[in-house]
Structure formats: C-alpha cells, structure tokens
C-alpha cells in the first residue's frame, strides 16, 4: 500500500514536470519532454507529500516488527 501511494505521488509530480503536463505512458516509445523551468510553488505540495510518504516507507522498513512481512515480499519476488 505504501509503495503504491509513493508511486502515485511520484507519477503526479513527474507529470507536472513534463511539457504540457503530459503523463508518462509506459507503452509509448518516448517519454514526454521535461519543462525547462518549473515554479517551486507549483510542485511544493507534491514534494512535501512525496517527502512524507518516503518517511512512512522508511519508518515501516526500520520497524523490526515488519521483518517477517518484508522477508515474505522478498521471497515472493525471488520465486
């Protein structure tokens, strides 16, 4: 859940950094061009949200009570 929220927030921020606020499409052969200039005020809220979500992920990873759950995810991804 945390990684999905983080991914969504990152996607929203990246979209605001692209020319004409074009979304990145993984199926497209090319990525949208980045804007040369972006006002900090236009992305500040997104940056703060991203920072907050990264902090949540960090806390989750540092919490030893989540060790077995994290280990399970790793084992799943390796099989």
Write the layout of secondary structure elements.
Layout: H1 2-17, H2 40-62, H3 67-78
What is this entry, summarized?
With about 80 residues, the protein is mostly helical.
Care to describe what's here?
There is one protein chain. This protein is mainly alpha-helical. The protein has one domain (2-78). Helix content is 65%, strand content 0%. The protein is built from 3 helices and no strands. The protein has helices at 2-17, 40-62, 67-78. Helix 1 packs antiparallel against helix 2 (40-62). The protein starts with a helix and ends with a helix. The mean pLDDT is 91. InterPro entries: Erp. It comes from Borrelia bissettiae. Keywords: Coiled coil, Plasmid. Pfam families: Erp_C.
Radius of gyration: 16 Å
Number of helical segments? 3
Computed structural class = mainly alpha
Q: Please provide the ordered H/E string of secondary-structure elements.
A: HHH
Instruction: Calculate the terminal CA-CA distance, rounded to whole Å.
Output: 21 Å
Overall pLDDT: 91
Fraction of residues in H or I helices? 55-70%
Low-confidence stretches: none
Described by strand count, sense and barrel closure, the largest sheet is: none
Number of DSSP-assigned strands: 0
The geometry reads as flat
In total, the number of domains comes to 1
Protein name: Erp C family protein
Organism: Borrelia bissettiae
Pfam family, one: Erp_C
InterPro entries: Erp (IPR009618)
């Amino acid at each position: 859940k945390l990684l999905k929220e983080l991914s969504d927030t990152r996607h929203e921020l990246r979209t605001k950094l692209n020319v004409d606020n074009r979304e990145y499409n993984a199926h497209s052969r090319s990525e949208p061009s980045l804007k040369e200039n972006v006002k900090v005020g236009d992305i500040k809220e997104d940056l703060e949200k991203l920072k907050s979500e990264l902090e949540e992920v960090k806390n989750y990873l540092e919490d030893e009570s989540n060790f077995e759950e994290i280990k399970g995810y790793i084992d799943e991804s390796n099989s």
